[in-house]
Amino acid sequence: MLIKGGNANSMVTQVLKDVYALKKPYGVLYKKKNITRPFEDQTSLEFFSKKSDCSLFMFGSHNKKRPNNLVIGRMYDYHVLDMIELGIEKFVSLKDIKNSKCPEGTKPMLIFAGDDFDVTEDYRRLKSLLIDFFRGPTVPNIRLAGLEYVLHFTALNGKIYFRSYKLLLKKSGCRTPRIELEEMGPSLDLVLRRTHLASDDLYKLSMKMPKALKPKKKKNVSHDTFGTTYGRIHMQKQDLSKLQTRKMKGLKKRPAERITEDQEKKSKRIKKN
Amino acid sequence: MSSGGAMEGQSVEELLAKAERDEAEKLQRITVHKELELEFDLGNLLASDRNPPTGLRRAGPTPEAELQALARDNTQLLINQLWQLPTERVEEALVARLPEPTTRLPREKPVPRPRPLTRWQQFARLKGIRPKKKTNLVWDEVSGQWRRRWGYQRARDDTKEWLIEVPGGADPSEDQFAKRIQAKKERVAKNELNRLRNLARAHKMQLPSAAGMHPTGHQSKEELGRAMQVAKVSTASVGRFQERLPKEKAPRGSGKKRKFQPLFGDFAAEKKSQLELLRVMKSKKPQLDVTRATNKQMREEDQEEAAKRRKMSQKGKRKGGRQGPGGKRKGVPPSQGGKRKAGLGSKMNSGPLPLGGKRKGGQHHGGKRRK
Q: Brix domain spans which residues (chain A) (predicted)?
């Protein structure tokens, strides 16, 4: 859900509208302004999420201390899990870029560039939050020609560059096409401000997977640090006399020899007894 | 022969080399060189590039072109990965089968708690009964074909028989077909009831009150008691005029539940009520709830009137009605005038509400104390 704060200016409203356009039909944009402060009081956000049954939200506001503020967050069980405040430094809207757009409801491709996204806990949570927010519904199959647009996030010098491009598939010599990009959608330059991250145990609780969804562990298969796979095979006790070995015709016993052997064995047994 | 072979060998080698060069050229269009491999999560169509963005750092304030180049490279790599997935053709479109998403994201709602076992499952667990594997189709002699074990057009459907022998001890004029259909309906209804009960137990819903109220002959004492209570209360006057049996005791615990405020909720309201309480305790003048006072007054007046009427009627009966109804009219004003306050006289017109606001009004001094 996309909510406007009490003092949202035109830039912030335009950002919310663009994100809503990207996320149709799975988003809900509230038209009226709501005078709340997400970082102080989370009850109104929780109330909204309960009413609209949405767990991801984006809240835009603007004041002198925090100009062009965007709070992006998610909920667990209708309580706020994570909230990250981003400041918008530069914004180019969908309608400012005069290009053809892709149809709404397509699943976007997400690319995160920059090693900053794994260094700090804040950035890691931000990455997970952005994935959660912008990925579409999880589908088992995807039409290869329907991969239309890509959202690219770059972390550089403390800023996060958010760009969206439309995909053009060009012929290359082989089956995989060559990609050309065309800037299509909203482009934002974001700066990380405050964060309100969930405590470790709440986060652990929210990550709990039901038993049915856990990946099934294959028994008797183990992996090495080098990547070698080891397997264990359990066999029944073998009767070595009945073992199938390579047959060499030259060593085959001839019938006369076999008879003499039997006679020897018999005499040996009689002697023993 | 050997020289010819060498020449042929050379031309073959040349051809092979040329083919390799062509391949490399083709692949060049789609290959991208990166120092660190990207991490892919194809279920989410996600790629993570860990390479430090050195090219961008040099770019300056508007790195648009460099960003686009970087994005193009990364997207190319992602597309290469996606095109390697197994594909199938679905309605003239090439569709790739995506693997499961590997990024672990927090859930939206808590994990559903495990459902309680149904009655049959509990029994089977207790007895150690395991499900027997049964075939889906059974040979049906009558129709001469393989039919389902249960369901539509099943193998042995006893309601569909065309000839039923009247059993030994049964009434010859009884409709055996109707009997079988009736038995089936009862079985279906019982099954449905059990299914709903299992569902209700799973969701811990309140079972509707009619669930335990049908007489089955196997009800326990508590169930019967509950049924009796519900029956008593389900009259037009909600059980007010239902008489009890001579030795029957009043049911305990069937009164109204008291509702309490939550321990910490509205701090402002709590503060207000506490301060109000202190103010009332501190004030010298007693508080007067006008509504309660007027209601009490009215009730007392009615009682006195009724008592007077009864006395009059008794006296009248004994002394032949000498005083009659005139006595009533005389009796009413003087007895109540002494008790009524001047302020309360206006109660008929305006009611207690406008006066309720001023509790310490000068009209009431030493008025009725609240009990």
A: 1-201
Tell me if the pTM is above 0.90.
no
pLDDT tens profile A145-191: 888 888 999 888 888 888 888 888 887 777 788 888 888 888 888 99
Q: What are phi and psi of A70, to 5 degrees?
A: -135, 120
pLDDT tens digits along A53-107:
888 999 998 888 888 889 999 988 888 888 999 999 888 888 887 777 777 778 8
Considering only the beta carbons, identify the residue of B22, B98, B101 that sits closest to A141: B98
Q: Does A186 touch chain B (CB under 8 A)?
A: no
Superfamily of domain A1-198: Brix domain (3.40.50.10480)
Identity of the residue in A141, A176, A210 whose CB atom sits nearest the CB atom of B95: A141
Which one of A143, A176, A211 makes the best mutation probe of the B interface by having the most chain B beta carbons within 10 Å?
A176
pLDDT band, residue B342 (cuts 50/70/90)? very low
Q: How confident is the model at residue B326 (pLDDT cuts 50, 70, 90)?
A: very low
pLDDT interval class at B191 (50, 70, 90):
very high
Contacts of B106 in chain A (CB under 8 A): 74, 76, 81, 128, 132, 203, 206-207
CA separation for the pair B308, B316 (Å, rounded): 12
Instruction: Return residues 39-98 of B near A (CB < 8 Å).
Output: 43-53, 56-57, 63-64, 67-68, 70-72, 74-76, 78-80, 82-84, 87-88, 90, 93-98
Q: Does A259 touch chain B (CB under 8 A)?
A: no
Contact B47 A173 (CB under 8 A): no
For B144, the token pair is 């001469």
Q: Which of A58, A116, A193, A133 is nearest to B103 (CA)?
A: A133
Average pLDDT of the residues in A11-24: 87
pLDDT of residue B330: 44
- Indicate the domain borders of chain A: 1-198
In this complex, is the C-beta atom of B111 within 8 Å of any C-beta atom belonging to chain A?
yes
Q: What's the N-to-C CA distance of chain B in angstroms?
A: 132
CA distance B115 to A201: 25
Report the 3 state secondary structure along chain A: CEEEECCCCHHHHHHHHHHHHHCCCCCCEEEEEECCCCCCCCHHHHHHHHHHCCCEEEEEECCCCCCCEEEEEEEECCEEEEEEEEEEEEEECCCCCCCCCCCCCCCCEEEEECCHHHHCHHHHHHHHHHHHHHCCCCCCEEEHHHCCEEEEEEEECCEEEEEEEEEEEECCCCCCCEEEEEECCCEEEEEEEEEECCCHHHHHHHHCCCHHHCCCCCCCEEECCCCCEEECCCCCCCCHHHCCCCCCHHHCCCHHHHHHHHHHHHHHHHHHC
Which chain B residues are Cβ-neighbours of A140 within 8 angstroms?
A: 97-98
Query: Can you tell me the mean pLDDT for B292-312?
Result: 90
- Which pLDDT score is estimated for B192? 94
